[in-house]
Amino acid sequence: MPAPPPSPVLQHQFGLRVRELRLAMGLNQEVFADKCGFARTYMSRIETGAANPSINAIKVLADALDVSISDLFKGM
Description:
Layout: H1 8-24, H2 29-36, H3 40-48, H4 55-65, H5 69-72
Helix pairs in contact: 1-3, 2-3
């Protein structure tokens, strides 16, 4: 039986959390995307919930934000 598709609500909440932490660091999206090694368009898609980042991408985001992976999911 195939796994259910990811929840768009969860993706949106995750993106909002990434954006919140990025803004708390005082970084614009382009600078933060460069810090992660991502294209700015991909970062935009993550923050709007349009992308479903891999676990590897989530680790890169957590490291760039200087938080644990679990901190990225707090409040969700």
